[in-house]
Structure formats: structure tokens, C-alpha cells
Design goal:
It is a single chain. By secondary structure, this protein is an alpha/beta fold. The chain has a single domain, classed as Rossmann fold. The protein is 35% helix and 16% strand. The chain has seven helices and eight strands, in the order ααβαβαβαβαβββαβ. It has helices spanning 8-18, 27-45, 62-77, 92-103, 112-118, 142-151, 208-213, and strands at residues 53-58, 80-84, 107-109, 124-128, 156-159, 181-185, 198-202, 227-230. An eight-stranded mixed beta sheet has the order 3-2-1-4-5-6-7-8, sandwiched between helices. α4 links the parallel β2 and β3 (107-109). α2 (27-45) crosses α3 (62-77). The longest helix has 19 residues, at 27-45. The two termini are 13 Å apart. Keywords: Cytoplasm, Isomerase, Metal-binding, Mitochondrion, NAD, NADP, Nucleotide-binding, Potassium. Belongs to the NnrE/AIBP family. It comes from Gymnopus androsaceus JB14.
Amino acid sequence: MSLRYLTARVAQQIDEELMSQAGAFSLDQLMELAGLSCAQALARVYDRNKYPNVLVCCGPGNQGGDGLVAARHLGMFGYTPTIFLPKPGSKEIYQRLKTQCDNMKIKTIDDTTALRDALPTTNVILDAIFGFSFKGPIRAPFDSVLPLLTDSRLPIVSVDIPSGWDVEEGNVEGVGLRPDVLVSLTAPKLGVRSFSGIHFLGGRFIPKSLEEKFELNLPEYPGFDQIVELKE
């Protein structure tokens, strides 16, 4: 049986079950594992000796939390991450993840002027702006951020779904990012069927019971890796 691609509704149901008694995970745990997967995927494709400077772009939601975790791990891996927060999240968990990055002396920028200044010295972008709950249109300040990232022509690694894409319809408006690498979390979303770059699955945390219930048909992760490459 083939790997299942998820609608927004099913993706939300799985998240809820992961944090219910069926999964018994906390949000912190899921973010930690997701962020670690994304950091590992970036490191797999972009060697730190050639791509040392990573711009980690984080939205205000859980997707941004994954990005903050990834930034911390990238710092641990020997990269030099810079965090871009066009609109910081207000939740306590988000603030703690940001403090963890501050404690590692990871630089943060928060406006488009600083973004423009940072792009010339950036080697690769990690896109953790919008998650699978995104619904257009793209509003300020993100409507000016996405074109800057696209126009930079830098390699982009997107978390779960490229920012600006509809979770089920894909980049229908043509305004979303066009990443070179995608790290789908839990299972890929319906809207990324058209993605043609390097595609990883990450988030090695789905219990067999939930995998079977939702008929995910996940591939096996190799060894102790947190990611597995998806190939058509």
C-alpha cells in the first residue's frame, strides 16, 4: 500500500490523538522531535562547511516553535543560525523555546530591513513560517517577507509544507515559497504531491496503533535516523 497524503482535517485529528491518551505526548515533545528532524534533514543536504549560515524563519504558531527547536539543534551541530521572527509567538512554550536559543547566543532579527541585511551572508534558509493550518491570503508582515526569501534565490528547506501553500491544493496562488527540500512531519500533506525536490519524512514518533488506525503506511526509518527520504 502507498504512503497516505493527509488532508488538513486528518492531520489535525492525528495531532489531537498524539496528545490524547492514544499518544500521550506533550506538545513540547512533539516540537522537540519535529525540530530535530528538520535540523537533521538540513544537515543531511547542506554540509556545514559549505553552508554554515542558516537563516531560520519562524512564524508565530507551532510551526515556528519547530523552527526554534531546529535552530537550537543546528547550533549544536556546528552551524551558525540566525532566527528571523517577523511576528513572534505569544504562547509560553514559544517563549521558552526562544529563551533556549537566546541562552545559546543565537542572534534574532525581527524586521524586513534586518532581513534584507542578513540575506547576503546567508547560505541556506529554513522555512518554518506557516503550518498545515494556514489559510490565505498572506497578510502583513508575511506578504513582504515571502517575496524577499524567494528573490534571494537561496536554497530553502521547508518544514511540513512550504509557506504560502494551501495544505490540500498546493501553491495554487503562485505566491508560496519554492523550496529545494521539504521535511514532511508525521505524514506528507495532500498539497505537496506536486513537490519535486528532495523530500524527507520526519517526526519519528507515530505509535503503530495510530499508524494503523489512520492507514498511514509509513516507510521504515533507517537505523537511528530521525528522517527518511521519500522517493516516488
